[in-house]
Amino acid sequence: MTNYRILAALLCAAGLASCEKNAVQVLPEAPLPGARIKFFNFGVNAPGVNFYADNTKMTAILSGTGTEATTGVTYGGAGNGGVYLAITPGAYTLTGRIAATVDKDLAVSTVTATLDDGKYYSFYMSGFYNTTTKTVDGFVVEDAFVPPTDYSVAYVRFVHAISNANPLTLYATKTAPPDSGLVVSVGAAVTYKGAGAFVALPSGVYNLGVRYTDSTTNKISRPGVSFLGGRIYTIAARGDITVTPGTTCPGTVRTCLDNTPNR
């Protein structure tokens, strides 16, 4: 019996951390959920929102007091700084809910979507906020990119989030050698709530413009956009097509081209 007691004591001291009251227990790491999603508030005149998947809050903004801010993700903004959030694959009701104290948590934009394992998605609030019904459009697109293998090119696609605009085509004009002046159509024309395919562009600086299919004139322009080799980008059009466009993306109703890296 004494020998068994000695053996047990040796095992406890040598290798069984659970025998030590204050030992740090190393638990097996749980696998991360297999789908990813990011959120954008591109709804013209829409309130600031927090985004939800069913009843799970996916985005929020911390105030300087350590409590949740009532501003939420405001127009032109992306939830959690535009990074992808992990989520368990499945069917969801995705909502943007008012972050302010007035009408707190009222869902103003609702989209149902099934998020598949191993895929990436983006949720966009879009169109014009209706102050009477307190609603605004929304849509979800799959971000169907693959990890880059050619690091001399960037991969770019176009998303159309302007409800009062016709189908738009994104064009990119290279500004410096090599291939200075090269004009590339970044995919085909895209309708409202649509997303084009990712297209390979030689890395460099480009002037961007979107056009109607029957025109050679840019409806919206953005100069001097850098695309780095091996990176993946989404250019999204937002705003009110009847308002004079800007060349940057201010927090106003003016149309602009938003540039967000996917990875």
Furnish the topology, listing elements before pairings.
Blueprint: H1 2-14, E1 35-41, E2 49-53, E3 56-57, E4 77-78, E5 85-87, E6 90-98, E7 107-115, E8 120-130, E9 135-142, E10 153-160, E11 168-174, E12 183-185, E13 199-202, E14 204-212, E15 220-227, E16 232-238, E17 256-261
Parallel strand pairs: 1-8, 10-16
Antiparallel strand pairs: 1-4, 1-5, 2-3, 2-6, 6-7, 8-9, 10-13, 11-12, 11-14, 14-15, 16-17
Provide an overview of this structure:
The protein is mainly beta and 263 residues long. The protein has two domains: 32-143, Sandwich (Immunoglobulin-like); 147-263, Immunoglobulin-like (Sandwich). Helices cover 5% and strands 41% of the residues. It is built from one helix and 17 strands. The strands form four sheets. Strands 1, 4, 5, 8 and 9 form a five-stranded mixed beta sheet that branches. A four-stranded antiparallel beta sheet has the order 3-2-6-7, with no helix packed on it. A four-stranded mixed beta sheet has the order 13-10-16-17, with no helix packed on it. Strand 11 (168-174) and strand 12 (183-185) form a beta hairpin. The longest helix is centred in the N-terminal third of the chain and has 13 residues, at 2-14. Mean pLDDT is 88; it is low at 1-27.
CATH architecture of the largest domain: Sandwich
Mean residue pLDDT: 88
Q: CATH topology of the largest domain, what is it called? A: Immunoglobulin-like
| Total discrete domains | 2
Poorly predicted runs are 1-27
Quaternary form: single chain
Quick one: overall form?
globular
Q: Return Rg in Å.
A: 24 Å
Our measurement of the CA-to-CA distance between the termini, rounded to an integer number of angstroms, reads 63 Å
Number of helices: 1
Residues in β-strands, percent: 35-45%
Strands, total number = 17
- What is the H-and-E element order? HEEEEEEEEEEEEEEEEE
